[in-house]
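Entry for the shared binder. Reason: the reviewer on the internal report wants the predicted structure included alongside the sequence.
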Amino acid sequence: MLYDVVVVGSGISGLYAALYARRAGLSVALICKSNPLRSNSAVASGGINAVLKTTHRDSCREHIGDTMNGAGELARFSSVSAMVTGAEEIIRELQSMGVAFDCRNDGEIAQRPFGGTKSSRTCYIADKTGAAITQTLLVQCRKEGVKIFQNHVMLSIATFKEQLSGITILRRKDSQVIAFACKSLILAGGGYAGIYRGHSTNSQESSGDMLAIALRSKMRLVNMEFVQFHPTTLAGSGTLISEASRGEGAYIVDETGTRFTDELATRDKLARAIMRHQAEGHSVYLDFRHLGEELIEKKLPSARKHALNGAGVDILSELLPITPAAHYTMGGIWSRSDTSTDIPNLFVCGECAYSGVHGANRLGGNSLLEAAYFGRVAGIEASRAAKKSEFHPIDYALVDKEARYIEMILEGENRFNINTMRRNLGNNLYNNAGIYRTHDSLADALEYVHYLMTMSSGLCCINKERSDNVELLSIIEFRNSLTVAEAMLMCALAREESRGSHYREDFPHSDNKDYQANTIVKRLAGTFLRITFEGNLSSDWWHRIRRFFHAQ
């Protein structure tokens, strides 16, 4: 199949990218692993940050400052500035597409406070913001002619003489490996917090596929050690209770009813405070009781529903038990401010990308803005590149190699339980590479990941059916998870300091002399990984100069 632009991922960033590439008059294919409404974007509930002309006592300068401060001095200022100043245009564009943001009595968009900010700048639709935006963009993509391929799983990037030629795909309905040729490729396939299985707000499909594929293609990954733990998830299930709850005034209390922390602190600080309090023997709860039924039904209906269904708790009259869980990953595929990467005509956006706006810790409400803003940038840049390019041939030896890989998993004799291995990986990472880390705990986690890597070759399908084989997908995802976990743990071991979401108990302070830089991971010969530290600007200038003269 030939398309001018192929987009992998159906969250907000992927949908926005596909929409803008299509508006450039190009043929566009959107590849998604399952249903587009199962992305992390669709379950992001709190809101999207923007300074609007109607926002009182706020400014873009304040939003930039809050973002830079929250990022632990690792954010890329130019990217943060561009995103923040473009935020209102994004909001108005979403409104024009039909996104019905909640409004004040005067008809202007309502905004709520979020953690780490000095102002109320988070636009929202009750507590289902991500779902509303995702659904609207999906309808718009279909209306404008984007070709959507559900239940297609990306396996690898195909190149010809170091030029992009396309991707290989597993078609789930018959387990066949096929190729999509394209002039430009956009990766928007999400992050890797799902590797903390059993301790994550993410779906089981959030396995870091895009990052594992990029690493195998000798692309650079950045800041893999920075994993954000959401402070308020249902104890026992990991179901997210949105930051919208605290933005609307819910308290964090212990069993005595004592508020022991600042509910609107940044997520890294809040998660550590909760874990400390739990380690001291306390239980931790969200208290909605003082908010009243009218406010909860209007602004937090999903929180009440999740509490009833997931914990059997009615938040109108009862305390809701909570605990932190892995939620969002700041690490991603290295990219420039225009979303371009190490491979010409390959662009990245969304959670799988390193856009430079989150640094060591993301502020709530900035992820949906980042997804929309850089998704649009990726769509524009990819379409420009495609118009100047030709199709390159796909080496079908690669397709055959991937087909044989799938055949081995399908036809081989299984020796281990995939579900047990995935849970064990999640438990190990949560206990040893979670909110608190040490050299010894990280080394133990890495040793266990290497052990699982040797065992994973014995994972094959018990069910040999070729139609929508769930085991096949689980094994592919698990092997990708191990690749990503290894990179994350090696970065965490290399960064001997505490910064943002990465907290080393053996190095509890930030070290700006040695570590105020991005952690870069690259695969060398075989499976060896190299870890280095680089500044934000070092790799960008030559690309800008080439682009300037090319445009002339």
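Summary line for the report: The longest helix spans residues 470-494.
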